[in-house]
Amino acid sequence: TEPGRSDHIILASANERLDLLINLEKQVKESNLKDPIIASQT
Length: 42
What we know:
- The protein is mainly alpha-helical.
- Helix content is 79%, strand content 0%.
- The chain has helices at 8-34, 36-41.
- This is 3572_t:CDS:1.
């Protein structure tokens, strides 16, 4: 996004949230691989 856009802050915030969600998903997948018994119970 371009800083001059009126909605730049909204788009930048959305991008940050998406990055956080992607990182969270990666962490969950990694923890599921490390301990598949707990993962299968959820």
